[in-house]
Amino acid sequence: MCTRYYIEPDAVFxxxxxxxxxxxxxxxxxxxxARPFKTSGEIMPTDLVPVIAPSPRGEMKVYxxxxxxxxxxxxxxxxxxxxxxxxEKPTFADGWRKHRCIIPAxxxxxxxxxxxxxxxxxxxxxxxxxxxxxxxxxxxxLYRIENGFPHFVILTKDPAEELxxxxxxxxxxxxxxxxxxxxxxxxxPEKLAGQFLTEMIWxxxx
Length: 206
Prior knowledge:
The chain has about 210 residues and is of the alpha+beta class. Helices cover about 15% and strands about 35% of the residues. The strands form two sheets. Strands 3, 4, 5, 6, 9, 10 and 11 form a seven-stranded mixed β-sheet that branches.
């Protein structure tokens, strides 16, 4: 699964985030949620962060969004959606068809999932993971409007073969050149899903 990711303070997309800091939506969301707009550091559930989505004219734009969908009868946000079945689930179907987004990151975090000698699940070491050959990680997501404000979830997929020892899922990621096509409302996500990145590099987090 993907519930934490990291944005380096000097990441190349920091300049992209400047446009949203002065927006009216940004001001309203900071007042409503009473939390800072995080453009660097470790990103956690319910944080207010920059996300790439289409403008009303279909152009690529950065918006402030809350990480996680609020679900009925629970205070725990929904953070991920399975890319293989998102188009069939009532919670995600509309987002899959028309409201796709990209979450800029430097890398994402995953914890090793282990089974103890007694057969119980336990968490092991924390790892930093990103696509091979890139300092940027473009996470694929879906978004929806809740009480007038945008919220997003991160899509997941089966793990790359070399990461199966770590976890049975990984976030869906695309190369930079496919960002515009992914977020465009008229694109076919099923076709783009075939181009999700699989070659990863990783190292143990301090």
